[in-house]
Write a structure and sequence with these properties.
The chain has 234 residues and is mainly α. The protein has 15 helices and no strands. The protein is globular.
Amino acid sequence: MLPIQKELQSLTNPEKAIILQHFFKTGHGEYGEGDIFLGIQVPHVRTISKKYLNLSYQEISILLNSKIHEERLVALLILIEKFNKSRKDNKERRRIYEFYLSQRAGINNWDLVDLSADKIVGEFIFNEDKSILRDLARSKNLWERRIAIVSTFAFIRRKRFGETLAISEILINDTHDLIHKAVGWMLREVGKRDQEILEIFLKTHYNSMPRTMLRYSIEKFPQDKRKAYLKGEI
């Protein structure tokens, strides 16, 4: 057992763990089936991650292959910090990006995706080939599809919306609620920066979008406009 694993184990909170396992749907047949929680609050995990930034990729891989959620979480926090510190070293950034994708089987709950996808995948491919987004969006794996759309947040922050709209079109008929929420979230972020662009997209797709996706995407609209979209009166 790695020292970081021992430190995490020492902070186990069984009562909190039960709450988190229910919240993250770890029961049989649920999206987080088999995920094990220690019950550690995220700020504490962040504090621990800062003490172990020199972990090797082999050690980070051990954490990402763990069944314990907080071990995978701390691994991603370390990777993000390594990526941020390599701002002037594109070779190292590529290594982290490729390592992240090679380990994506362990990035298998919505909080892990939402924490990391835009900060590593999105940031790296901003000036690189972006075809990985379409490959992931067409994956049969729920988490890979969520990585695809959440990664585009890195583009949205720079007011580049094409990638988000393109991936949203691929995922428009997805059957999973967690994809409906993620796409709606990213579309809402587009609209917060340019409502006109979002409305152009919505006028083509709002009648066929899953209800949750539409609700998320128009959340910041004025009440009367939200009602019009939901009633199909646009």
